[in-house]
Write a structure and sequence with these properties.
Distance between the termini: 12 Å
Radius of gyration: 14 Å
Order of helices and strands: HHHHH
Strand content: under 5%
Oligomer: single chain
Helix content: 55-70%
Structural class: mainly alpha
Number of helices: 5
Largest sheet: none
């Protein structure tokens, strides 16, 4: 389960490494710059959803969205 951009970036980095693909190779696969991949893996904000979906597809990953329960109404407490 991933709840933050940093966690998602770490998961993507791990998946890429397990496939033996460099950041440059992944960037070339999706038609982006290596710096974009680095930014995603660092959990930086501002990544376009379209770019993120391309990365996930290139790494044969799916994204699933599900409801979660929360005890607090404060969004800061959820993360």
């Amino acid at each position: 389960m991933v709840r933050t951009a940093t966690q998602l970036g770490a998961y993507i980095q791990d998946a890429r490494a397990r496939k033996g693909i460099s950041q440059q190779q992944l960037a070339e696969m999706i038609g982006k710059h290596q710096k974009t991949i680095s930014s995603i893996e660092q959990g930086s904000s501002g990544t376009k959803l379209e770019t993120l979906l391309l990365v996930l597809a290139a790494l044969d990953l799916n994204i699933a969205i599900s409801a979660r329960t929360k005890a607090s109404q404060n969004i800061g407490d959820i993360f």
